[in-house]
Design goal:
The structure is a homotetramer. Chain A has about 350 residues and is an alpha/beta fold. Chain A contains twelve helices and 13 strands. Chains A, B, C, D: Keywords: Amino-acid biosynthesis, Arginine biosynthesis, Cytoplasm, NADP, Oxidoreductase.
């Protein structure tokens, strides 16, 4: 059994990692740290883990983390970059679920995240952990930047179109909707059920941190800068992201075939039959991205519908998928459960 | 007190009409018909009306309806067109909340609604009941076609931009999201809470009946055919529509000023301050459309956010607004309550 | 127009007061205070009030409050008791929506609320503002203690039974369920939608502050101490309380008649027909309590179902009802809207 | 691999059985029947099963079902009793998830279910499938009556108290709350999200079919008739049952110890620490019942809080647990996943 550490495991990403790792056949969580909850048994905080996880949160401890095969950072932005160098030197592999290593251009990162980067040299080394693009690089990586939730849903939706030059690279629209768990478990009046239940709104129209990440992904795939408008919205539900993607067609393409072929060998991308509309609940709790592609009314506009569970393929599940690749395990190990429907 | 009749009042549109009319200062509901519920007191079906409405549903009755000043049709598509001619001849004014008189081009209507139109000549006479465009015509109308919910939200959002020639008329995108009450109160397994709760999906991407209606509105405003992609989505909540509208800017426009000036005299359109994101709950139960306009990142794309309550400004409330205009009452009579928040 | 002040109007109780008072025919809100939001226009915080309320929050100001006819305290427990004496001396009538004046026995209050009472003498004078019991006293009161939400629902349900000696006074059970708005608008991780959505739980089984209040009410009505078990639960919805009340029958009573007669003249208590089950949505946004009484299987157990909107009859609406009585207005003024259903 | 058949797998119980069996290590679903959906691939109906289950629904087929080791009936009440005799004769073991074999007294069953029983002799043979009571009998059974959802939650909560004679057997109250999935997937206007979302109500106060089942269970445990009032309520959420149970204490008992000892060896009953309040989400998707026991204010009333997922421990999960026992597998095989939280 490989030994796994988690730094900062009290949030939703942390508990989701624990849920997935608790039944993983090849690994074992040996260390989980939290300054605020040190001493608390994990299962006291998250009763769903009673009977599955017996350990308690401890203070961050370099020695214990250094004895792990791989460490996940489920910390706020800006934390991992301070601790990762030491772990890498100790020979530990690292996956950061926050944004510290996602953006290659340091100045862009510093502008959007409002702080100085602590280890810009590692940003160049870090592999962006979207296995559908970077599978081989992830297998050999010491440090993986786990993608954001919106970027995962949007990138997987645009990917086949951009690779095939089937769309204009300007005027792209990503109209994305997320459940509230994406905002985390911090005490925030704006995320009270009394505030966000039975209501719907856009937010961050003038700028959201996932915009440069999506743009970086799409531009790399297209090998040229893309023009993208990204509007996130908040759904009155807990889990799930739905990306509705718009792009202008170039030429005529068999879109269904394009998508099916591109993802034929990907265990976690499921292209639905022509005419389908994926529901977020069809991926609740699982690591799949389900996608449908449409060209309404034989017009020029292509519409892609892409759904993921923001806490799984959008965070902890994708991190486990990356872990599997980095540790030489089966890519799907521990990720074979069935979505909870209804 | 003006005498008001309602044909087909058992659905959500019907009960919403009753809610609004029950406290209206100048009118009185004297007749409400339903074949299936004839004999049932209205308040037995809708306990929120206990103490407010004392009448019972009756079988459709031409004589009693003919004695009304105005009759609302809250019936399925295809019903009003059979009964309206007789009422108009009897001197009764009519508002149809279904789609029978919304589409001017009969062949388009027949294609999307799958039936032959029973009185195409009245379609030409009918006034499309969006007061922000057709106020004067509504005041003089015998027959008003009350707009659909999505068309109301989308049209009010694009209206100032199209009137000012501030956007390209091709490549428009209307990414719209609706609460489940828009699907009505019929027994439909697809709308069970177990099916639509805690989930989100698009539907009708390849074609939805509100597409030709929105396109007709926008083309009339633009005085030329517009290119529009319309994708409706289903929200896991009961009331509210959020339209996220995308269009490419032409030239430079002070968008905030444009919207504020266009709607300065409209009692039911509220332009939010620059940078705002309207929430659907801010219009829950009321007849307002709240709108914000953005131009993210100084790019070419303009994003309009437009919210309404699909049962009020998107149906019964707008019908009451139209009634007020047709009967010479104050446009806002009976529509001055405050949205229920939280 | 009577002049009304509100102290501490930023929470859900405050915005609900504003919603109700904005359309009240006989009063006008002239002052609203908030230390944290002083200077902010009320409608910036609560967009549903745009166009209805033009004033801004100000710092607490004794002079301006002293010029009001009546002042509502929508403050945390322990605040009103410090400020009320001064206002009463200035001739202002006061309604406290918190708990400072609800419990007659000072030591009980101090034990449950964990602080010393600042003006115990006023507790004796304060009238408990449940109009269905204390209507005349409220009309003459300077100071009214507005009841808690659970106590309102539970007391109105047990009231006819206890007055008629139709039940044992021991072994009473009040199994109560509340929407999340009852917990207020403070930043509290436990009330995030991610925590309370799609889940249900009891809380405070070993003791909740509304227990002594309910017990005081029932014991006064019964003229003897009652034995009561009270278990509150948290519903995954925003508004509404449902009290399910259990008591052992004494003798044979026509329960339906008992309830109908007791509440025949009460404008805000609606006894449903025999066999009915009130839904919380039937009172959403309105000041009614709807009640049904059952005696299942001809057994000894009587079951009462009582629903209110916790923010209306359970807080702001009942406060307005009390205000109407205290100011000599019609008891139902400003409270005649219809519940929002669906 | 044992061969498993499912009769009537299109409802929520059916899809939940498929979800659990899809990853079960020791069994394989070889036949699934549905008259209405014959020919439809299972994964077309339930997209969460894409990639997990490749078979299609077929018409009921005695031969294919007869070749199974065990067959589940996920059919409406009254269906299994007609088909079970033939299967038993063919040597197939059977678990009925409906109510046909739950009630021992035929006349009581016929009264509550409104039909004549087709094989009363098999009712006597059938074992009531609550493993925490009948584990050994289940291991040897040919035919198991899988318990109802409310009866499971309520019986497990009262069980230790009744076995230890720690409560009065009269005046028991079971105030139970269920998510909407308990009502199934049939087209029923009363279960639309527009009807049951954001609202809460009791139902069936005068009589619910689970009442005789709970009463039978409790009376058997107590070895005497018990007096029970059972009130079910409908929660605005999808999965989960919360039973709040009230009973009068007899003598003094260490309740925490009593519950912990009774369930020490049960893999699917989790007694929470003293003072805890179980949340339904802590068992979402898993086969556990989590229980807390309280004696508020040192009074006579004992309050038990018991939560299950109505589709798992309340239906399909308990059925799999019973299957494991009947087929000589590990009781927990296929049931070791972690609840989905949040």
């Amino acid at each position: 059994m490989k030994k796994i550490g988690i730094v900062g495991g009290t949030g939703y990403t942390g508990v989701e990692l624990l849920r997935l790792l608790a039944t993983h056949p090849d690994v074992e969580v040996t260390v989980i740290t939290s300054r605020s909850e040190a001493g608390t048994p994990v299962a006291d905080m998250y009763p769903n883990l009673r009977g599955h996880i017996d350990i308690a949160f401890i203070e961050p401890n370099a020695e214990l983390l250094g004895a792990c095969d791989l460490v996940f950072f489920a910390t706020p932005n800006g934390t991992a970059m301070k601790l990762v160098p030491e772990l890498l030197e100790a020979g530990v592999k690292v996956i950061d679920l926050a944004a510290d290593f996602r953006i290659k251009e340091i100045s862009v990162w510093e502008q959007w995240y409002g702080m100085e980067h602590a280890c810009p040299n590692l940003v160049a080394e870090a592999v962006y952990g979207l296995p559908e693009i970077n599978c081989d690089a992830i297998k050999g990586a010491r440090l993986v930047a786990n993608p954001g939730c919106y970027p995962t849903a949007a990138t997987l939706g645009f990917l086949p179109l951009l690779e095939a030059n089937a769309i204009e690279t300007d005027g792209l629209v990503a109209d994305c909707k997320s459940g509230v768990s994406g905002a985390g478990r911090g005490a925030n009046a704006a995320m009270l059920m009394g505030e966000v239940g039975e209501s719907f709104k856009a937010y961050g129209v003038l700028g959201h941190r996932h915009l440069p990440e999506i743009r970086q992904n799409l531009s790399e795939i297209a090998s040229e800068p893309v023009g993208l408008t990204f509007v996130p919205h908040l759904l009155p539900m807990i889990r799930g992201i739905h990306a509705t993607l718009y792009a202008e067609a170039v030429g005529e393409t068999d879109l269904q075939q394009l998508f099916e072929q591109r993802y034929a060998d990907e265990p976690f991308v499921d292209v639905l039959p022509a005419g389908a509309h994926p529901e977020t609940r069809s991926v609740r709790g699982v690591n799949h991205c389900r996608i449908a592609v449409h060209q309404p009314q034989d017009g020029d506009m292509i519409v892609v519908l892409s759904v993921i569970d923001n806490l799984v393929k959008g965070a902890a599940g994708q991190a486990v998928q990356n872990m599997n690749l980095m540790l030489g395990l089966d890519e799907a190990a521990g990720l074979n459960s069935v979505a909870l429907l209804p």
